[in-house]
Design brief:
alpha/beta
């Protein structure tokens, strides 16, 4: 069965977006971290998004600016198959994107049962919370940036039951960011 992972950048106080929904603070790149991100983007699989993250990503990665600033990542982001879960989008025109409007949990169960490719949720905090609560997430990859926001959208905020996790990997970067990889204890 394919694995469903989540990749999220959060602040030290646990937010993935500030109080205004802004995520520009999350771009804490230096050469070492940029190389890590580019290497991570070389993996295969299917990218999974909620509507808000999809619209943000689809507005950036196909652009000339993305090709100039992050050429290796841009090529992969545009080439990989993508799924967007949305009840409100009429279409998902970004290359190689499938729009799913049905029941979120039932559709992800079908995808996990019927796919051979691993899937990774980029951003999309609401999806991560719902999939984690349903036991569908196999791995949480988190980058903690050395900044405190004080308010915003909390990573895994609103989760109704404890989610026991086991740390499997960690890495500290020169820019102060820390990469953590967890698996649910089952």
């Amino acid at each position: 069965m394919p694995r469903l992972s989540s990749f999220m950048t959060i602040s030290l106080d646990g937010y993935f977006a500030d109080a205004n929904g802004d995520m520009r603070w999350a771009h804490n790149a230096d050469p070492e971290f940029s190389e890590f991100v580019a290497g991570n983007a070389q993996g295969g699989g299917v990218l999974v998004f909620g509507r808000v993250t999809y619209e943000m990503m689809a507005g950036y990665w196909p652009s000339p600016m993305a090709a100039k600033n992050d050429p290796r990542v841009a090529v992969r982001m545009n080439a990989l198959p993508k799924i967007v879960f949305s009840r409100t989008l009429a279409a998902a025109p970004w290359h190689n994107t499938k729009l799913i409007k049905g029941d979120l949990l039932a559709e992800m169960r079908k995808l996990k049962d019927g796919s051979r490719e691993n899937m990774v949720i980029l951003g999309s905090g609401s999806l991560v919370r719902q999939f984690a609560e349903a036991g569908l997430i196999d791995e949480l990859q988190i980058v903690v940036n050395p900044i405190a926001l004080g308010d915003g959208k909390k990573y895994l905020g609103g989760i109704r039951e404890r989610l026991p996790l086991r740390l499997t990997t960690s890495r500290t970067f020169g820019n102060g960011s820390v990469f953590l990889k967890f698996e649910p204890k089952r």
